[in-house]
Design brief:
Elements (H helix, E strand, L loop, with lengths): L1 E4 L4 H9 L5 E2 L14 H19 L4 E12 L2 E2 L6 H11 L3 E13 L3 E12 L5 H10 L21 E3 L2 H5 L3 H10 L10
Parallel strand pairs: 1-2, 1-3
Antiparallel strand pairs: 3-4, 3-5, 5-6, 6-7
Length: 195
């Protein structure tokens, strides 16, 4: 049974590829605006559901569609992705010396019968204190842009993270172990894995 990644995220594709999984990509663009009163967990699950629905309507089975949305949450607030250098600087300053959460909502849809699995994975990330001049150097690399919370743990930002609690791959954008468990529950196996 083929896998379809409902995302143009290079990082999510790398996680699947590095895990030896075959898949195709059908990107999904949805409005990611937070709805008033919506919790971070509700947000990531709603967006994963929307991406899965969009791609499932365009895909041909038998297949399993994998959709996900990842957000960085500090003190109950979603930080989002920076739009400007100043946004990124402010986010990194807030994260410095603190613990935050990374939430990824995942929705899987098996086609053609539309059987689905949905879950939210949470990982806690401890950041070291980062001096202002180091934040400026990090911003100059360009790495913080287009990243939830303005950092990439798999890149230079990894040097600021002494400890995590939970799934490392969740921070990158796709909780691999839980994903594989749910795929198996939908009937996927590596023996049946094909593009």
């Amino acid at each position: 049974m083929k896998l379809i990644l409902a995302s143009a995220s290079v990082r999510r594709a790398e996680i699947l590829h590095d895990a030896g999984m075959s898949f195709t990509v059908l990107s999904s663009a949805v409005d990611e605006t937070l709805i008033a009163g919506e919790s971070p967990a509700e947000l990531v699950q709603r967006l994963a559901d929307a991406k899965a629905e969009l791609v499932s309507a365009r895909a041909v089975g038998p297949a399993i569609v994998i959709a996900a949305d990842t957000e960085v949450v500090l003190d109950g607030h979603v930080l989002g992705k920076p739009r400007t250098s100043e946004d990124a600087r402010q986010m990194l300053t807030k994260l410095s010396g603190r613990t935050h959460s990374v939430l990824t909502g995942v929705t899987l849809v098996r086609l053609p019968d539309a059987e689905r699995r949905s879950f939210v994975e949470t990982t806690h990330v401890h950041f070291s204190q980062i001096p202002n001049e180091e934040i400026a150097r990090y911003l100059a690399t360009g790495e913080p842009f287009d990243k939830a919370g303005s950092y990439a743990i798999q890149g230079r930002a990894g040097r600021y993270v002494p400890r995590i609690e939970g799934c490392y791959f969740n921070i990158v954008g796709l909780p691999l172990a839980r994903l594989c468990q749910e795929l198996v529950s939908l009937g996927w196996s590596e023996d049946l894995d094909s593009t």
